[in-house]
Specification:
five-stranded parallel beta sheet, alpha+beta, EC 6.3.4.13, PreATP-grasp_dom_sf, 32% helix, 14 helices, five-stranded antiparallel beta sheet
Length: 423
């Protein structure tokens, strides 16, 4: 088979790495890809939002299956377009990808189908939003309605912060069009986990549990990012919590989307807040998480290609997934200043040394090539991911990989996976 992966981040590097291992695959393309991906696949210089260009390439090269990594092409309707031309593609159709593309749609869907979530209201004007903030009190969560690259969520600790956030978003300063509507919701206490599942619109197959670290600094402090690290399994997802998440979150959502005439096919990601035996849904994503994808795929024993193909063909009833017993931990190495302003073009040292450490994979997220050097070109630059017999072993090995790599201003959290150790 020939497979095209769309995207250029750490998630796509992990997907390409896993897909390339399949005996069913003879050629992998990635558009636009990155230097790390280029070592495993052929990078194709087509942007993720260039739908006609991607379609033309897939048709010209007789691509057997296209796998969509990021949310943007899904929200633009790439799956609908490819299916119109009879091409197999893994991902949610445009009307289903709205579960991520609009926070307001997602919250209204949860309310209608009794998916447990935080109390909320949706606003397009500042004054009523402030009145609701005053009613709920702080801390409080302010979310841009549209896509904001994982950064459109602000947890306001004070009234002033909350008022500033809604004012910034609704005036179009903070996230442009994405912030023209805001969701203001109650702050939930507990521990977060990422719950992902494959679905064909009817059947649901859960992936292993994972936990992401959103805040930029140790101890979950500082502003939210696209994710500073992740690990799997997540001990907070006990068998009882898993059962509850499947029944009350995944099942109700997949059935609800079907009832709305928006059958959901692809991978569905639920961000959960777990407090004792209570499970509430923070958000949905229409794709693999980044960085959760990296440890999850390192733990996946099964060939991923038959699974992706079965989803694209609309029937996963005969699919089963096997997992390695080992734990996996991903530590994101970011540019100094991220998620705010950061520099690009710093030379990265030590990639070869890190790659020689057993059971360590360095997934590229924001890199470029300049002459003979690999340089930084994004906020999140690398995802150093390691397997270990225990979470402790995986943490130690991942940080061994991190210690081998350096560049000017590099920043990473030093406590990825510590919540698992505390359990």
């Amino acid at each position: 088979m020939k497979i095209l992966v769309i995207g250029s981040g750490g998630r796509e590097h992990a997907l390409v790495w896993k897909i390339a291992q399949s005996p069913l695959v003879k050629k992998v393309y990635c558009a636009p890809g990155n230097p790390g991906i280029g070592q495993l696949a052929e990078n194709v210089a087509i942007g993720v939002d260039d739908l006609p260009g991607l379609l033309a390439f897939a048709r010209r090269e007789n691509v057997d299956l296209t796998v969509v990594g990021p949310e943007l092409p899904l929200s633009l309707g790439i799956v609908d377009l490819f299916e119109e031309y009879g091409l197999k593609i893994f991902g949610a159709r445009r009307n289903a990808a709205l579960i991520e593309a609009s926070k307001a749609f997602s919250k209204d869907l949860m309310k209608k189908y009794h998916v447990p979530t935080a109390a909320y209201e949706v606003f397009t004007a500042v004054e009523p939003a402030i009145a609701f903030i005053d009613r709920l009190g702080v801390p409080i969560v302010i979310k841009a309605d549209g896509l904001a690259a994982g950064k459109g969520v602000i947890i306001a600790q004070t009234r002033d912060e909350a008022v500033e956030a809604v004012t910034d978003m609704l005036s179009g300063n903070a996230f442009g069009e994405a912030g023209s509507r805001v969701v203001v919701e109650e702050f939930l206490k507990g521990e977060e986990a990422s719950f992902l599942a494959f679905t064909d619109g009817k059947n649901i197959i859960p992936l292993a549990s994972a936990q992401d670290h959103k805040a930029v600094f140790d101890g979950d402090t500082g502003p939210n990012t696209g994710g500073m690290g992740a690990y799997s399994p997540a001990p907070v997802v006990t068998p009882a919590i898993h059962e509850k998440a499947m029944a009350e979150v995944m099942r109700r959502t997949v059935d609800g989307m079907a009832a709305e005439g928006r059958p959901y096919r692809g991978v569905l990601y639920a961000g959960l807040m777990i407090d004792g035996d209570q499970v509430k849904t923070l958000e949905f994503n229409a794709r693999f998480g980044d960085p959760e994808c990296q440890p999850l795929l390192m733990r996946m024993k099964s060939d991923i290609v038959p699974i992706l193909l079965a989803v694209a063909e609309g029937d996963i009833s005969r699919v089963a997934i096997e997992w390695h017993d080992q734990a996996a931990v991903c530590v994101v190495m970011a540019s100094g200043g991220y998620p705010a302003e950061y520099r690009k073009g710093d030379a990265i040292q030590g990639l070869d040394a890190a790659a020689r450490i057993p059971d360590v994979m360095v997934f590229h997220a924001g890199t470029a090539v300049r002459g003979e050097e690999t340089v930084t070109s994004g906020g999140r630059v690398l995802g150093v991911t390691a397997l270990g017999g225990t979470v402790r072993e995986a943490i130690d090995r991942a940080y061994q990989g991190v210690a081998a790599i350096s560049w000017d201003g590099v920043h990473f959290r030093k406590d990825i996976g510590s919540k698992a150790l505390n359990r």
